[in-house]
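pls design
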């Protein structure tokens, strides 16, 4: 079964940047739409960004113009470049097949705080 391993999170000051990576155990990132999701304490998991096999990209309004999703099909990896981070971006970030979920990975914690 496909497994996702997210990495790249950490503690960053407001206005800072992070680059998250999500490695899939099987070759799916170029065949399926992939998404980055996040879950803040006490809140539901929400979609942050998605990318289709054809390259169509969508962002949540809250991260548009600050986050960039991309993929490397040869590495079976999806990335999320995050800039101008805000305290409200604090959450555990996950990747998964977009809207056709497979088992979730452990996620990577992003904390934005001064």
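designed seq:
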């Amino acid at each position: 079964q496909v497994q996702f391993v997210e990495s790249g999170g950490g503690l960053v000051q407001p206005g800072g940047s992070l680059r998250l990576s999500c490695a899939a155990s099987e070759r799916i990132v170029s065949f399926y739409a992939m998404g980055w999701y996040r879950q803040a304490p006490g809140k539901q998991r929400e979609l942050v960004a998605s990318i289709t096999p054809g390259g169509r990209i969508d962002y949540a309004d809250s991260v548009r113009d600050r986050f960039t999703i991309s993929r490397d099909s040869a590495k079976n990896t999806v990335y999320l470049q995050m800039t101008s981070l805000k305290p409200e971006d604090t959450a555990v970030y996950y990747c998964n097949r977009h809207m056709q979920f497979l088992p979730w990975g452990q996620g990577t914690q992003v904390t934005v705080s001064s």
